[in-house]
Amino acid sequence: MIRVLLAEDHGVVRGALTALLNLTGDIEVVAGIDRGDKVVPHALACAPDVAVIDIEMPGVDGIEATCRLKRAMPSCQVLILTGLASSGLLKRAMDAGASGFLLKDAPTERLAESIRRIVQGERVIDATLALAAMSATVTPLTDREAAVLGLVGSGATTGEIAAELHLSAATVRNYISSVITKTGARNRTDAVRIAVESGWIEGLRHN
Predict the structure, then answer these.
(1) Which of 145, 132, 139 is nearest to 180 (CA)?
(2) Distance between CA atoms of residues 133 and 116, nearest Å
């Protein structure tokens, strides 16, 4: 029997996946949790073979939860679920130690088969995600543009960014304008989203 910890903050989704996985006959969900910062303590308590973790979680996100889990329990394999086919997220997940990356809308049968393959030592990456990774482009942003955009994503104002990077407010606005043009974004918020999804800057972590 493959022991699984399921981390998914939506109760209905978590309940449905738990019920379906428990029907497979060879997989048992031994813990279901709703926060990323609960992954490690629950894993230590129930010793799962695989942790299936949603990438968007309160507390800490799925990638940070994976990092913490692999430090605390290296033998536990991790399968991350995502609703977004992003090469940047895929790279971050693999760097964190995940053994699999699967789209959330995949059939339960594919999820179950992915869990089995991961236990056998394989890496499992959704075909759509693998295609996104192969077609990914190098960032068009300069280091300074990426730094400015990262601060925009953290909620900093133009004045705060200027002070942090020792720039004038006008220069910061020029950088933001350049980033919007390069990313094809509608505005600065959209530019942050595009850059995070493309892996050009890191997304914010939940506290």
Answers:
(1) 145
(2) 24
Per-residue pLDDT of 7-25, as tens digits, reads 999 999 999 999 999 999 9
Q: What is the CA radius of gyration of the chain?
A: 19
Nearest to 82 by CA among 56, 111, 108, 61: 56
In 3-state terms, what secondary structure has residue 125? strand
CB under 8 Å to 6, separation ≥6 — which residues?
Answer: 14, 17, 18, 21, 29, 31, 32, 33, 51, 52
- List phi, psi (to 5°) of 165: -100, 5
Query: Per residue in 184-193, is it b (16+ CB within 10 Å) or e — as a string?
Result: ebeebeebbe
Distance between CA 55 and CA 91 in Å, rounded?
13
- How many CB atoms neighbour CB 120 within 10 A? 8
How far is residue 144's CA from residue 160's CA, in Å, rounded to a whole number? 15
Q: Two tokens at 64?
A: 């940070």
From CA 6, how far away is CA 12, in angstroms rounded?
A: 13
Whole-model pTM: value is 0.66
Give the Cα separation of 79 and 51 in Å (integer). Answer: 6
Phi (first) and psi of residue 73, to 5 degrees:
-145, 80
User: In this predicted model, what pLDDT tens digit does every residue of 153-179 receive, in sequence order?
Assistant: 999 999 999 999 999 999 999 999 999
- Both tokens of residue 172? 């910061």
Give φ, ψ of 2 to 5 degrees: -90, 125
- SS3 (DSSP) at 79: strand
